[in-house]
Amino acid sequence: MDFKNTTFLLSAYDLNQKLPHLREVAVLGRSNVGKSTLLNALFNSKSLVKTSQRPGKTESINYFLVDNKILFADLPGFGYAKVSKEKKKNWTLLVDSYVRNHPKISLFLLLVDIRREVEEEEATLLEIARIRKIPILIVLTKCDKLSGNQLRVRVKQFQENELIANTTLISHGFKTPAQTDALRKEILHELHNAS
Questions:
Q1: Is residue 98 a part of any domain in this protein?
Q2: Which residue segment(s) compose the domain that 161 sits in?
Q3: CA distance 188 to 195
């Protein structure tokens, strides 16, 4: 798998949608963490994954087929979003049911803005991953918004955070193609180990 052939498959608003019988990478993170931008970088595309300045734009599980071998499931962001309570509740139920029960997940790709802290939602997801024995890769996004020294300090703080002990961390800046290449390799490594 080399991420050279990615297509948008469908948007699912429940977990009953029929999909190819393939393993899935679940992509999660807060609203405005940069999921869409990161996925476009991974997929070598500028517009395959729709980006928005408005947090909470993703309202369904959006599936992308990569090299006809694996599915990437882009889930609604958690946390801040200017939407109704009912819609936020529906998103929460959809994401919670997916991460706790969906049988095809081979890897959780959890995006965390390097300038923020690990909060309750991330901690819950980490616990679910451990219970289900599904590998989780934490991607520290927006690294290009920090100076070199600030970046080193923040990475060290994440490495020392007991909540994410023994979890693989990788830094990613959207303007740094080498970091995108490193992320692709780490995803493939995690998937290989999980197979």
A1: yes
A2: 6-194
A3: 11
**In whole angstroms, how far apart are CA 97 and each of 20, 77, 102, 129, 178?**
19, 14, 7, 13, 35
Distance CA(37)–CA(12), nearest Å, equals: 20
Q: Which tens digit of pLDDT belongs to each residue from 20-38?
A: 999 999 999 998 899 999 9
CATH code, domain carrying 157: 3.40.50.300
Cα within 13 Å of Cα(19), Cβ side: 28
Cβ atoms of 78 and 88 within 8 Å: the answer is no
E-strand spans in 33-172? 61-66, 70-74, 105-113, 136-141, 168-171
SS3 assignment, position 13: coil
Predicted model pTM = 0.91
pLDDT in tens, 112-143: 999 999 988 899 999 999 999 999 999 999 99
Number of structural domains the chain divides into: 1
- Residue given tokens 């994401």 in the structure block: 95
CB neighbours of residue 42 within 10 Å: 25
∠165-171-173 over CA atoms, to 5°?
A: 155
Q: What is the sign of the dihedral through the CA atoms of 43, 46, 48 and 52?
A: positive
Q: Does residue 1 fall inside a structural domain?
A: no
Task: Write the CB contacts of 182 (distance below 8 Å, at least 6 apart in sequence).
Answer: 170
Task: Return the DSSP state at 76.
Answer: P
